[in-house]
Amino acid sequence: MAAFSYIKLLAFLVFSLLACSAHAQLTNGFYQKTCPKLETIVRSVMTQAIAKEARMGASILRLFFHDCFVNGCDAGILLDDTPTFTGEKNAGPNANSARGFEVIDAIKTQVEASCNATVSCADILALATRDGVNLLGGPTWNVPLGRRDARTASLSGANSNLPGPGSSLSTLISMFSAQGLTAADMTVLSGAHTIGQASCQFFRNRIFNEKNINASFASLRQQTCPKSGGDNTLAPLDVQSPNTFDNAYYVDLVNKKGLFHSDQELFNGGSQDKLVTQYSTNPALFASDFAKAMVKLGNIKPLTGKDGEIRLNCRKMN
Asked: What is the pLDDT of residue 100?
């Protein structure tokens, strides 16, 4: 009987180990031995890209967010459409707005030259995102690595999982919750809008028709975003310091200068007002919480172990 119990216990332990390896966790220093120059390469290319165009930091950050919210952080967003494959690049939230693919390509080319068929595009995107934020004055953090690249993508997921600029607070909270993120995570990750630009068509209604907006701010935006025409004219998401990763976004919200309806929803008499106020006066708290939330975002349903693949070209499956 005792022997039978021991065999059962052994079988259970073996099964548990197999289950754990099938859902292996991401780890810091995953490529320490297999690709020791990885982080140096990523930092170098991102430094060059941001020197050329500061907006690129925001573009890469947005790519990562849009990737992770659709089937997890698996580089699905990087796949090009082909006659036999439909990717995510032409989904509503990505078409004509997702950008920075050529920067990821440039990093991948150098990484492949240093350590062939070793580092996933998903991990490259995660590292590039961190460096883009940091190079613009934001925090840095250890990026857990070990993601693998998807052999699939989801156009429908990209169309349905990503909150739009007209989203209500309740919609934002529920869409982040669907990814395992809390309302507080949502509020701090929205601080990504301290950098980057947006097209007139996505904030026109707010600057002409909404009441909870600073009048002089609305007038300023109306100068380059008229009631008709100019749909693709850009404006900074953070009116104060659009190329610096800081807490000014929250100061904007407290002053009713959120560019998107969804931005101002975070400070409009609702559940996130207190946290927005805290971040508006405590940049160190925002930076610390943002870094923690980015690690949590990067942990959404990664492919690990033998799942997926290590793409040789980020735009296409092997």
From this structure: 97
231 is in an annotated binding site: no
Find out whether 307 is annotated in a ligand binding site. no
Q: Has residue 21 got a pLDDT over 60?
A: no
Residue 163 known to bind ligand: yes
Q: Is 261 a catalytic residue?
A: no
With CA atoms as reference, report the closest residue to 254 among 303, 217, 291, 225: 217
How many angstroms separate the CA atoms of 161 and 88, rounded?
A: 12
Residue 140 annotated in ligand binding: no
pLDDT at 10: 42
Is 67 flagged in the annotation as binding?
yes
CA distance linking residue 232 with residue 254, whole number of Å: 27
* 23 has pLDDT over 60: no
- Which of the four pLDDT bands, split at 50, 70 and 90, describes residue 25? confident
DSSP codes, the chain: -HHHHHHHHHHHHHHHHHHHHHTPPPBTTTTTTT-TTHHHHHHHHHHHHHHH-TTHHHHHHHHHHHHHTTTSSSSGGGPPPBTTB--STTSTTTTTT---HHHHHHHHHHHHHHSTTTS-HHHHHHHHHHHHHHHTT-------B--BB-S---HHHHHHHSPPTT--HHHHHHHHHTTT--HHHHHHHGGGGGS-EEEGGGTHHHHHH-SSS-HHHHHHHHTTS-SSS-TT-EEESSSS-TTS-SSHHHHHHHTT--SSHHHHGGGSSSTTHHHHHHHHH-HHHHHHHHHHHHHHHHTSS-B-TTSSB--SBTTB--
- The residue from 66, 108, 148, 206 that is catalytic is 66
